[in-house]
Amino acid sequence: MAKDLTSRKENYAQWYNDLVIKADLAENSAVRGCMVIKPTGYAIWEKMQSVLDGMFKATGHVNAYFPIFIPKSFFSREADHVEGFAKECAVVTHYRLKNSPDGKGVVVDDDAKLEEELIIRPTSETIIWDTYKTWIQSYRDLPLLINQWANVVRWEMRTRLFLRTAEFLWQEGHTAHATKEEAIEETEKILDVYAEFAEEWMAMPVLKGLKSPNERFAGAVETYCIEALMQDGKALQSGTSHFLGQNFAKAFDVKYLTKENKQEYVWATSWGVSTRLMGALIMAHSDDNGLIIPPKLAPTQVVIVPIYKKPEQLAAISEKALEIKKSLESKGISVKFDDRDIHKPGWKFAEYEFKGVPVRIAIGPRDLENGTVEVARRDTQEKEILQFQDIDTKIEHLLEAIQDNLYQKALSFRENNTRKADTWEEFVNILDDQGGFILAHWDGTAETEQKIKEETKATIRLIPIDGKMEDGKCIYSGKPSKQRVVFARAY
Amino acid sequence: MAKDLTSRKENYAQWYNDLVIKADLAENSAVRGCMVIKPTGYAIWEKMQSVLDGMFKATGHVNAYFPIFIPKSFFSREADHVEGFAKECAVVTHYRLKNSPDGKGVVVDDDAKLEEELIIRPTSETIIWDTYKTWIQSYRDLPLLINQWANVVRWEMRTRLFLRTAEFLWQEGHTAHATKEEAIEETEKILDVYAEFAEEWMAMPVLKGLKSPNERFAGAVETYCIEALMQDGKALQSGTSHFLGQNFAKAFDVKYLTKENKQEYVWATSWGVSTRLMGALIMAHSDDNGLIIPPKLAPTQVVIVPIYKKPEQLAAISEKALEIKKSLESKGISVKFDDRDIHKPGWKFAEYEFKGVPVRIAIGPRDLENGTVEVARRDTQEKEILQFQDIDTKIEHLLEAIQDNLYQKALSFRENNTRKADTWEEFVNILDDQGGFILAHWDGTAETEQKIKEETKATIRLIPIDGKMEDGKCIYSGKPSKQRVVFARAY
């Protein structure tokens, strides 16, 4: 086991925390609940951002930036919204410090009290819809398809690196439309973008569906989500896309002039993914030997380690290594050649395995003679000897194979951990013995959902869209149901 | 004059504000002093970010992310630093709201008062050096070359879009080094990066130099800066790079083990540029007809406008226009083909001129017959007729010529507005009649600098690095001086 990493079997939560810290991805800061994202972790987040940003732009969205502060009164305008967020807000009350009268340090200057307190955005619907009021006059101004990359703050009591932190980084899309249909179409389009990103880039299969009313975003008419299954059998909500109806348009009085010259309220969506995806990525693939990062998101995709005893051997190996590096880079593959002499090859092998670099190439003097390299893949830990010839194409295909294997492995895991439960006993037994997704009938009431949550900690992760209709009885109340929903314990 | 834009001559400040708002770059928000950066403005900022980020990475830096909150006590650790920033801090005192007892809205929950107040970062030296304490143990951990892209808050009383706002976006580099020499080298290297970015990308010539002690960053040993001259003869500080000595290492007790096995304090630098650069970019080049954006930073570099009366004409023109668009795009040029039928060509011409698109191509039926297009450049407003053949290369060269012309024009302006003053009378007359940079002798004291500022509002913008040594007398005190420094009124 690498670097005293707790094994998943021993303590999954500890394994995760160890891994995040020992792989230098993030750490807790001096400020309660806030993390420092270290360069190794941030490099992965940057790749995620870059891909998502491209996908948003390809679907017609543009970026903008709105203030971090929200006047307190804005929150109260949308009743559900304030209910959902008021309990976890960081509140700015003053705008100045002064020297402490006792000469020790600084204190808040009571003369610099704000007339109205400012909330640090936990999400930006209110400040953005207050702004949209002046941007939207007529149907010609619609649709408005805007995204922002920003930090947000939610004062969580129990925090975990990446998964739940007081401050986190995210993107939040806020769009405005002339019709209900168009807004719903947008909500679903973004859900597809999120699912595609999770599956194609993170190699993480997701279920798509609708949240039950209990789990809906505060202020939304419908919340769509993608849910992934982690290796401990718990679900992780990985992205949400909200159809907001006319709720925020009414709260902020945003109307537009239709082609027929009538004033109508605007229809809205909002949607977001956050640094929480980093947690999902880590938990979806990594093992007891350390991180496993899908090649498409790995900042370093290939590392080349020279094996040598004498300096002249290193010189000859370096020449070949740099040639390989160059040919891989010409294919858009990111390569690190680690010729540091302060560490031995064995140390480097362990290090890059732990850090999750998808492919390791080792070259020694005998390889040079034979015209070969040793190639090791991180996912299966298999090694093979490859000829120099066409090494760039071979590595390119290997990276694709690793990406595909990680997805297939995660998909099999999910399939093997998705079960039907038809009785309460079955439901509870599966939850306690196996975890995973459980497909079960539910009577559709918030009361039943709440009871199930209280008794088992399981929640409805989603109601499948276009799911199979099937008559059944609620596992809890025995009342009739038309469709199975997906339950799980969740992060 | 476009869109009721106030002319520069009439009221330069109003011209600037009109332009920022009417060109849809940014606007004031509902929160005092905070701006909304609109999609058009944000697209330029994104280009700036992308170029700068590449330059930082090319010089060995990596990105990370540190918390937005700084515990109040951290500020007091470095005496100059707290003095410089305590007066303009947003302070978080509570972490929860609750329903108002009168049932109207929400109020701050007094039960949720923080034990220690949190400051929203005005800059991150303190939280970062508190973190570096655990990251740095030995010389092997150095240098640490980290940058972060973030929002910061300084509670400015008088704000102006982009130039001075309570919240702004920036990058802040924070590096740690084993030796003083290496830290100074880093400080100067970054100054060169900033100058290169300003000159090569923004087409904005800058002076490089050192700040006087009065104008130094709070906590720095030396502050290096780049200063540009705006069209109204006022200077604009466009970037700063600070040599922090061991001040923050001592304040946060960050030591490292040297190769000789001794404990030494670490040497530090910090450096930043912000959305203020947007203000500089706008003011450096734009005119009474609207924005002028240097081609290298223009989100849309070329716009193609079809001129037609009948739909079949549009079809033929579109075919040609899309062909040109494709060939330009293959050269990496960003092109918009505006075939909207809701606006007439004249409207579009005015619009793109106002928005500062560097090159406009117009194509009408006669052009198709002749195998030509009409090309207009935004900077000089000259038009020419060009043959289809090799249009991509011609436009590529034209964009380069525009970039170069903007730089040369700004450089000539600065040269024509940089004057020597040898007496107080000369100094005051130049300031009042002409503005610009003034090269004058100064006795080197903070008192004289302060007096000059109080009497004229001019400050020392910088002390030239490697400037010519020359004996002279201080224009204010008459005391001896060894070198001229650069004075100006400034933003």
Radius of gyration of chain A: 26 Å
Helix coverage percent of residues of chain A?
A: 25-40%
Record field, number of beta strands of chain A: 26
Structural class of chain A comes to: alpha+beta
Q: Could you please say which CATH topology of the largest domain in chain A applies here?
A: BirA Bifunctional Protein, domain 2
How many separate domains of chain A? 3
Q: Give the CATH architecture of the largest domain in chain A.
A: 2-Layer Sandwich
The first-level CATH class of the largest domain in chain A is given as Alpha Beta
Regarding quaternary structure, what we see is homodimer
Q: What is the CATH superfamily classification of the largest domain in chain A?
A: Bira Bifunctional Protein, Domain 2
N-to-C terminal Cα separation of chain A, in Å? 26 Å
Uncertain stretches of chain A:
none
Largest interface: A-B, 63 and 63 residues
Q: Which percent range describes the beta-strand content of chain A? A: 25-35%
From the spread of the alpha carbons, the general shape of chain A counts as: globular
Biggest beta sheet attributes of chain A: 12 strands, mixed
